[in-house]
Amino acid sequence: MEGMPRCARARRRALPAHAQCVAEPPEAPRGLRLGGVGARWVRLQWAAPPGLQYAARYTALHALPAAADRSAAANLSVRDDGPRTDADGLHTLSARLEGLRPAAAYSLRLTAANHVGVSPHSEPLMFTTLEEAPTASPQNVRVRAANPGELRVSWSAPPQDSWNGELLGYVATWRELGRFEEEEAAARTGSAVAPGWSSAELALGGLRSSARYALTLRAYNRAGAGPASPAAYASTPDGEPDAAPAHVACEALSPRELRVRWSPLPSAHALRGYDLHYAPLHFATCK
C-alpha cells in the first residue's frame, strides 16, 4: 500500500532477522476527478489510502494580468466516501476546495503527505467554475435630454474582474417622478435592454414631455443581473402642447378694446405663454 513501510508490502516473503522496515513518502494520488462544481468551489475525488494528509496546488488559467491569486495552495479536509475501490486497498476520498473565482479555468494537482515526506504531484485536473451574476454596477452613468419624450443614457462597463462570466448587456430601469405623493404612487415605470458588453448608450423613448425621471443601470450575464447603479436624474424637454386652449370667449369692452378668456392647459405642460392671433372682419352693406 502507498505510504506504508516497504517491509509491510513484502510481508509474504521471509525476511532475515536483521532486516529493518524502511518508511517512504506516499505515492501520488490516483484518478483525480471532479465530483461537483459551483461558481466559487469544486469538490475533488481521488483514490488513495486513508490516513494521509492532502494538499491542492492550483493555477488560474487566462487570469487577468492584475490578478493576485493566479496560483495558490490549500490543505484539504478529506472525507472518506466509502468502500475500497481496487485490489490495492485504495479508498475513494473527496474534499471541497473553496475560494475560487467564478467563470475561471483552473489547472489543479494533488499531493499526499505522511510523517516521512510528500508524494509527487498527481496528474493535472482541468476545470472551469460556473458563472455568477456581476458584482459591480456600470460606471459613469449619465442621462441627458434628447428629443421631446426621449432621454439618452450613457455609461462605461463595470470593472472586468467583477463580470464573473461573459457580460451579455445592460438593463436600464426608469421611473417617472411625480410632484405630489399621489402622483408618485401612480408613477409610470419601464425598462429597456442594451445587448452586448461593449454597449455604451441607449435611447429611452415613449416618455412624457416635461417630466422628470430617475434611472438606474445594471449589467447582466448568463447567471443574472448585478447590482444597480446609483440613480441618475433628468427631465425630458418640452414638446408641443397636444391640445389647444378650450372654452375661448371674447367680449367687447369698448370700441377699441376686447377681452379674451380661455381655460388653461393641464399643468403637466411647462408653458411659456400663449400666442393670440386676431384679424378685423369687414362687413359689406348689401343694397
Summarize the structure.
With 287 residues, the chain is mainly beta.
Structure description:
This protein is mainly beta. The protein has two domains: 6-128, Immunoglobulins (Immunoglobulin-like), CATH 2.60.40.10; 139-235, Immunoglobulin-like, CATH 2.60.40.10. Helices cover 3% and strands 42% of the residues. The protein contains two helices and 18 strands. The protein has helices at residues 6-9, 181-185; strands at residues 30-37, 42-48, 53-61, 71-75, 79-84, 91-97, 105-113, 125-128, 139-145, 151-156, 169-177, 189-195, 201-204, 212-221, 224-225, 232-235, 246-254, 257-263. Strands 11, 12, 14, 15 and 16 form a five-stranded antiparallel β-sheet that branches. Strands 1-2-6-5 form a four-stranded antiparallel β-sheet, with no helix packed on it. Strand 5 and strand 6 (91-97) form a beta hairpin. 21% of the residues are buried. Mean pLDDT is 83; it is low at 8-12.
Task: Set down the secondary structure blueprint.
Layout lengths: L5 H4 L20 E8 L4 E7 L4 E9 L9 E5 L3 E6 L6 E7 L7 E9 L11 E4 L10 E7 L5 E6 L12 E9 L3 H5 L3 E7 L5 E4 L7 E10 L2 E2 L6 E4 L10 E9 L2 E7 L24
Antiparallel strand pairs: 1-2, 2-6, 3-4, 3-7, 5-6, 7-8, 9-10, 10-13, 11-12, 11-14, 14-15, 14-16, 17-18
The level of helicity is under 10%
Structural class based on helices, strands and sheet pairing = mainly beta
Note the gap between the termini.
Answer: 135 Å
Report the CATH architecture of the largest domain. Answer: Sandwich
Strand content: 35-45%
Overall number of strands: 18
Order of helices and strands: HEEEEEEEEEEEHEEEEEEE
Uncertain runs are: 8-12
Number of domains: 2
What is the CATH topology classification name of the largest domain?
Immunoglobulin-like
User: What profile does the largest beta sheet have?
Assistant: 5 strands, antiparallel
